[in-house]
């Protein structure tokens, strides 16, 4: 969401009818436990100086974590601010190699959002959403661990690309959060009103198709290891949609939904075959946090068992440790917690269950 949209979101809340219902939907009246009430939080180490790690992807070949990093507040003020992609080694966080931009400065106008690794034994690639020009970048990962851009893919329907999941050397799904685009005043309205005009687009290596539509702010994506199921975070609906996937055609059929009590962002796979879901408990506080780093916003990481649909909370923070968490990723034996606008991420030994339902 752009600044304008976030400001408009607050305006809409006041102006719209059914304000109390909307505020209830946005969890405005629910409390979030203070950070020091979660015993597991002590096991987290902040890694400071890497801004806006909105997404992270574990590399199954190198064991490193790919990080999508951008000073997102500065970028809103100055469009020349450029993002970076890092390959972070959790065992050597101070190694300069963990802090180097791997893109070689390509492309120059770069605002990375969702990322995903593809590796099949022959090809080793990183797929990146570039919000700067609403494109999908495909990089080859070199033997030295750097990124060489080999393709840039666009489509007119990509008005607000958010998260990507690769399913082949050149094929992928991308979530388009809202048809009117992040910077439109209407995106805030759409989020609050719960209008469903987000979609999931599929690119088969040659052409685009719309695999799913009608999502309320489409966000995180994940495909099961057997390729037969796709999971999509429908942020505005506070749920994860489960689709049966045809691995040959790429088509999706709605199968069921898994409801959450907060607003899901990125999805990753844990080591245990469960989905890790970065979630925003309070979007109005999140919006305030995006405008100013003086404001904190709660963070949550939940784990979904895809078989039973059971949901458990792994990490809950009022925002004093990490505000606006968007992703939790398993990396080696650790968990990496990234956020949209903090100048740090957290590296945790093992989140401890603080509540479950
Ligand atoms: Ca996202």
Mean pLDDT: 88
Task: Please outline the major beta sheet.
Answer: 5 strands, antiparallel
- Span of the ends, CA to CA: 31 Å
Element order, helices and strands?
A: HHEEEHEEEEEEEHEEEEEEEEHEEEEEE
**Strand percentage:** 35-45%
Say how many strands there are: 24
Rounded radius of gyration (Å)? 19 Å
Number of helices: 5
Low-confidence stretches: 34-42, 352-357
Structural class, by secondary structure, is: mainly beta
Strand order of the largest sheet: 17-18-19-20-24
Rough outline: globular
Helix content: 10-25%
- Which ions, cofactors or small ligands are bound in this entry? calcium ion
Topology:
Blueprint: H1 3-15, H2 19-25, E1 44-48, E2 55-58, E3 65-69, H3 72-77, E4 84-88, E5 112-119, E6 124-130, E7 135-141, E8 147-153, E9 161-166, E10 172-176, H4 185-193, E11 198-203, E12 208-215, E13 218-223, E14 229-234, E15 239-245, E16 252-259, E17 263-269, E18 275-280, H5 283-291, E19 299-304, E20 311-317, E21 325-331, E22 334-339, E23 344-348, E24 355-356
This protein binds calcium ion.
Calcium ion binds next to strand 9, strand 13 and strand 17.
């Amino acid at each position: 969401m752009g600044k304008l949209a976030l400001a408009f979101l607050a305006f809409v809340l006041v102006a719209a009818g059914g304000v109390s219902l909307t505020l209830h939907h946005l969890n405005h009246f629910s409390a979030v436990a203070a950070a020091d009430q979660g015993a597991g939080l002590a096991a987290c180490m902040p890694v400071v100086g890497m801004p806006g790690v909105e997404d992270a992807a574990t590399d199954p070949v190198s064991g490193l974590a790919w990080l999508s990093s951008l000073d997102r507040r500065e970028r809103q003020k100055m469009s020349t601010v450029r993002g970076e992609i890092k390959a972070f080694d959790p065992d050597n966080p101070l190694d300069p190699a963990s802090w180097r931009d791997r893109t070689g400065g390509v492309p120059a106008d770069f605002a990375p959002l969702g990322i995903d690794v593809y590796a099949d034994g022959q090809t080793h690639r990183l797929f990146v959403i570039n919000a700067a020009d609403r494109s999908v970048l495909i990089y080859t990962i070199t033997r030295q661990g750097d990124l060489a851009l080999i393709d840039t893919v666009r489509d007119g329907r990509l008005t607000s690309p958010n998260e990507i999941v690769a399913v082949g050397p050149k094929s992928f799904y991308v979530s388009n959060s809202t048809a009117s685009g992040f910077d439109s005043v209407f995106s805030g309205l759409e989020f609050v009103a719960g209008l469903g005009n987000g979609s999931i687009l599929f690119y088969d290596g040659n052409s685009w198709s719309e695999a799913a539509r009608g999502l309320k702010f489409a966000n995180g994506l994940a495909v099961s290891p057997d390729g037969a199921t796709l999971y999509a975070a429908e942020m505005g609906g506070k749920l994860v949609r489960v689709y049966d996937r045809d691995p040959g055609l790429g088509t999706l059929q709605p199968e069921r939904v898994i409801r959450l009590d907060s607003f899901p962002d990125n999805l990753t796979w844990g080591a245990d075959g469960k989905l890790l879901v970065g979630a925003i408990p309070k979007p109005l506080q999140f919006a305030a946090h995006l405008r100013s780093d003086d404001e904190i916003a709660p963070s949550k990481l939940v784990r979904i068992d895809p078989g039973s649909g059971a949901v458990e909370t792994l990490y809950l923070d009022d925002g004093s440790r990490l505000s606006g968490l968007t992703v939790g990723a398993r990396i080696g034996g650790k968990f990496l917690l990234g956020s949209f606008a903090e100048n740090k991420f957290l590296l945790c030994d093992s989140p401890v269950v603080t509540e479950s339902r």
